[in-house]
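EI: anyone free to look at a 119-residue chain?
SC: sure, send it
EI:
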Amino acid sequence: MINFQICGNLGKDALLNQNIEDSGSESSLIEFPVYSNQYKGESGCYNMQLWCRKTNDKKIKLILESFKSGTQVTCFGRIEQEKYQDKNTGDNRTKTKFIVSSFELPPLKKVPEVEALPF
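SC: here you go
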């Protein structure tokens, strides 16, 4: 198993995978792209997958509300290779999946209060 740690910004809002939602599964799949340039100045886009139990709907709602385009996030997890056959050509293909086991968001910055100055 290969583990990863990727820090970057979300390329778009996190979304629930509707195919999983409609399948009757006990889990939900949240997907989001992370753009990062942490490796020797080379940038890349990593498509993350975060699985959550549907019974933990507060966590799912919080993630979907927090993971918006441009948000900085650090993801930790494992890399898996998915093998499949191309439906159009019949060729064997592989797809790299980044399965997130945990994540960190930076703390929210507090804006200092400024006193109104008399004119």
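EI: Strands lie at 2-10, 15-16, 27-39, 42-53, 72-85, 92-104.
SC: 👍
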